[in-house]
Amino acid sequence: MKFKTFRGGTHPHDCKQFTQDKPIVKMEPSKIMVYPMSQHIGAPCTPTVKVGDSVLMGQVIGESDAFVSAPVHSTVSGKVVAVEKRLHTNGTNVMSVVIENDFQDTKVDTIKEYDDENTLTRQEKLDLVKKAGIVGLGGATFPTHIKLNPPADKKIDTFVINGAECEPYLTSDYRVMLETPVLVFEGIKQIMSILGVKKACIGIENNKPEAIDIMTKLSKNYEGVEVCPLKTKYPQGSEKHLIKAITGREVPSGKLPADVGVVVDNIDTCTAVYNAIKFRQPVFTRVVTVSGMAVKNPGNYYVRLGTGFDDILKTAEYDEEKTVKVIAGGPMMGLAQSSLNVPAIKGTSAVLALTKEEVNLDEEVACTRCGKCVSKCPMGLMPVQLNSFAKIGDMETCLKYDVMDCIECGVCSFTCPSGNHITQRIKLAKRKIAASRKK
What pLDDT is stored for residue 439 in this prediction? Predict the structure, then answer.
């Protein structure tokens, strides 16, 4: 069988052996739960509670009137003990609501099973998705209710489900496909009804044969849904590359998937949509892969949003002395953490505790112009040139070399034999350009 793929890319050792056979287990939440008001792309929320308030599980504690935003909910019941800036996984201090967990899990009374999912209107379903605070749970965190409601002039005909999970170490989506595939398909069914499409494709890399088998068999029960096996290659899970591999369509520079008639969502996001429509349930938990050679009990855990990284790693029995780097997300696109005093948020797909054997601590040496970063770049860019111009602060030339098209996948840094931090320099260049445009 010839597996679909895209030009460029690479694939490091996937390191999935630590957790791929570990069933998802429930992890207890922290005593003190922290909820940043920014867990999504777009405008941050404003706290709707104050110190001393009692809150219920599922209660809105932050919301915004901005078009691009998503409400934040408490994932436990308890009492608000602080509304203040706290450290975020992105390294900044963000306004947060801090709740002391009473461990009673007393829910708001609207969370229960409903039987109207097939009679609700499209707009009613969209409203439920918005109220549930669902964002892209693959890590991009774009508000889902906006993605599922493209402008009228964008004619969507295909829904693509991202089951590639190409980042090393990550196995959360894989376990969801093995353990709760029906929930995924029911979510796909609801999203197809919202988008008004009759075709859906689930992209799964060929290093996950069990998932391909299970999802293919189940797809026969859902009209219009098919599984598309993909070649194992990073970054196959990138939206644009997934679309190219599955549909053959190319998203133009500066455009979005909707411009080529496609909407893409992650496996776990589909489940969240089903829970929002069927149970009126916001995003309480997400499946988090906890892994790395410093972790004694790596696995896939249902983690309550707001739970601290310190408690997550302690539960998985990590070795603090062996840990040289902790990453939120995967090793290619995730964020290294300066402190464990940060909470799991909607975009936290993994928490990795890595040893010195797993990270590259070598210093940079001069670029040899070998061209590996150019041949492997999945976006067809010239990372070697972008690295040079970003290094000297020449943002104008970076723009000429299409720096804003970079998806920050990390392939250039990974393949560089000189150990150049190309992706990091490109990230900084993009942020400088974006800041100057705002001015």
Answer: 74
